[in-house]
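Hi V.,

You were right to ask for the full record rather than a summary. Here it is.
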Amino acid sequence: MAKDKTHINLVFIGHVDHGKSTTVGRLMFDSGNIDEQTMRKLKDKATELGKAGFEFAFVMDNLKEEQERGVTIDLAHKKFETEKYYFTIIDAPGHKDFIKNMITGASQADAGVLVVAANDGVMAQTKEHVFLARTLGVDQLYIAVNKMDMVKYDQKRFEEVKAEVQNLLKSVGYKPDVCKFLPIAAFPGDNVAKKSENMSWYDGPTLLEALDQLQEPEKPTELPLRLPIQDVYNITGIGVVPVGRVETGVMKVGDKIIAVPGREGKGVKGEIKSMEMHHEQLQQVGPGDNIGFNVRGFGKKDITRGDVIGHESNAPTVASEFTAQMVVLNHPTVVTIGYTPVFHIHTAQIACQVTAIEKKLNPATGEVLAENPDFIKNGDAAIVKIKPIQPLVIEKQKEIPQMSRFAIRDSGMTVAAGMCIDLVKKEL
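Predicted structure:
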């Protein structure tokens, strides 16, 4: 039973058109997690839309618009089981305008599979995704070198791509030994769930076997309770039902909790009446659980997306300012003092101002390259001081890493990503 197995959130990342969705579809079909009939329907649909060969991708791309464009837009969540684990697969879109989804996707991932096409090798987006995965705390990363059929299953080409990706991984601080490289061809199905006849030179695991070799994620149950709210529903006869994912800690029915900042910025107190996940009532929930819950004491105007739930005895931290280590990924010009973009932190989106740039760092080694530079630009890492325009919950990386990370978006692009290393606490 899935319930008895350890649950792992697995994110698939990589450049658009490198075959992420097809890899996932093939994986689920060959491992028996999708039946023939569903697959046949998708195949007919693909042919009908003039996209023959896209049926595996359609397993993930189940939105009508995506099927017509052949592009992954939303974050598709798919469940799937192996011998050892129970996975939720998060298919993170490769397209630029969907990187925002990628950010919320990767921040929830315990492990990742980077798909790189053997014929293309490392592309601009491959770099961006690896960087984001690292900054957002995806510690275990596998690299599926896909489309080996397009390069005639050539071992030399596989080794070239592997070397290229290894340099990229090292440059952002991944240890190459935690990164497995697997040659696959997702469309014909080589080495995804079945050993390939075409690559006798490779004696490693298939992608499916490799997934069972992932390390079990540590569940941060000892840390204080932190549950960022994703949505708030008002359900007739029940009342206010916030929905969100427990990042850290444990929550039980009857617990006295507080949501901060809350409507007045002073926090809203309440008591947990009931909780449910997948329409099942629960008495206790922990890290990774996506739940809806009902709270005695919460009115519908009291809380909103971006508020964070904690125990009253250990309320989430509201920062009046914070110090961050961040990297500039994609800014049209340069970042200077006074810059006020939107920060995406857990489920909150809040404008924050850069009030000081304290140090410029080497992104790979972390050594200080300059003190108080006038600006930072693409590729630079830096220590900066930041002032939120409205109350904002964030925690120090050293204390609750799950609540310390952020991405900065500006005019539809991910400009930078980073984490909070220090903060000034605002008293509620």
